[in-house]
């Protein structure tokens, strides 16, 4: 490919070869059929599942693969692959996601017709990838198109807070990309940082119709990046909002709402994110995380949990912590007290259930064993290397 492509599809990947193959095959076929000059840029973050071999075997000049010198994590790999783009416009895409090609080209043509627009954003269409799944719906909704003139940070800030916007899926012009996207992103959710930087360079247009189909519920048991951010990095959302507010204040202090109103808007935004994170952590049996999140929300009187729900999470957190520490003690499975009549299958993750047993082992003074107990007289014969993990003590930690 000698001429500059119109579009770069930028895909960071790590150990998901099958999904990456689907991604590349789909986009080669669909964008090729549309007759547009494009490339697919892939950044392989030191995968160990044959991804490098698959990429090396591709005989298509439209695919430009890179293998990182060392595993760098999602954000660094995201920035790396975006900055390798040679196209006039670039779009980020997860390896398990698919673009809507006709919509992408529609939006790119809009940018071609209106060169003041340096970035187009839109909600993404969530998809349930499990058998008999289907489209879930857009991640957020806006009632029409919203255009923000270069530098108009106060309006962007108000828009994000009003409609609960996450500016993650973007089509960005190459010169704007160069001045907006890089890997350092401490204390702040990356999408707010990149979008704030981009608005300093050009207009940004938000459109209501999605241009990407994104995995919301995966058939792959591994944690999705989006879910990981929602569940464990939600605190960075506040950092992102604070960043946009600070930029808006620099641009137009006089246009800012009263501080109390602004604080209430930020708190409302964060309360919604914390409620989502709490719900997802409960669903994933992350009991300790759910317990701590409840207390952080309860500090402001905003926890949605009733006392009975808090008591259940407290109990589950104690049991899970005891079992987790027990299974990391010795080489064999942790032995569970028969008196522990709680339904462990409802409390523990599958990988923890695989490491426990109710069978008492034969005595062996040379092998360290871990016992999770409710009855203080369990086990009947404790070896010199054995350790006990008392459920009641662990539950008491979660006051």
Q: Explain this structure to me?
A:
It is globular and about 80 Å long. The protein is built from 15 helices and 16 strands. The protein has an eight-stranded mixed sheet with strand order 3-2-1-4-10-6-11-9, sandwiched between helices. A four-stranded mixed sheet has the order 5-12-7-8. A four-stranded parallel sheet has the order 14-13-15-16. Strand 1, helix 1 and strand 2 form a beta-alpha-beta unit. It has helices at residues 17-33, 51-56, 74-83, 101-113, 153-163, 174-178, 190-199, 225-232, 235-251, 259-283, 287-298, 307-327, 344-347, 350-353, 391-397, and strands at residues 7-13, 38-44, 63-67, 89-92, 98-99, 117-121, 125-128, 135-138, 146-148, 170-173, 203-206, 212-217, 334-336, 356-357, 370-373, 387-390. The mean pLDDT is 93. 43% of the residues lie in helices and 17% in strands. The chain is α/β, with parallel strands linked by helices. The longest helix is centred in the C-terminal third of the chain and has 25 residues, at 259-283.
